[in-house]
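Could you show me some protein's one-letter sequence and the numbers that encode its backbone in two labelled lines?

___
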Amino acid sequence: MKRTSTLLDASAIALSSLCLLHCLALPLLAAALPLLGVWAEAEWVHGLFVIIAAPMTGFALWRAHRQQRLPAAAVTSAVVGLLLLLAGAAGWPSHDSETPMTVAGSLLLAATHAWNAWRRHRH
């Protein structure tokens, strides 16, 4: 069971990092490579990241909570991170806030998963 939780946290951190990379690096690459610009600006990419991140985060945190009760701060930071990702993917409240919200959500989720992996390893 511990190996599965480690894999889930590692996968969630990797997905959050991929999301962060998408938001920060792809616009720079898009300027140099017009072909990547089409993919970087595709709205379906944001929705896909949320569709993958939400169940994976939920499952990882559920498993972690079953093993040892999670503090409310961990659950809150994960929920806020997912909500920021969802808001960024939906372009809410504006298209201009999409990148900052997505970056903040990705960092918050990655930090929560990293903290959970550290906590599990420590116990």
